[in-house]
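Mods, move this if it's the wrong board.
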Amino acid sequence: MPEAVGDAPSETFVSEALRPTGTGSVLPPRVGEPALPLQFVWRRQVRTVQSVRRAWKALDPDRTHGGGELYLRRHWFELQMDDGAVWTVYFQRQPASRRRAKARWWLYCLSSRAD
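Not the wrong board. Structure tokens:
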């Protein structure tokens, strides 16, 4: 785990699948966007989202049809969790493979900052 220097946050790369649980969502979903679950199961523990710190989207060129069109690949969220950690998660619009078709939510990294 990286060492924090002064007030710098300590960030850890994770890249593990998350499993949404429960029926609640943090925000009402907008058209074309995923509903952000209120809770996730990660490493056999249920974690609750306290707030959304920020959200953004990742666009990539469409490689299947050519041309200059862009395709929305991922929805990113920075989340304040119930244990004080800050998670950076993303929703993958298309699964990487059939075997992992249900793995759409991913924990990219977590941080100890709680500013």
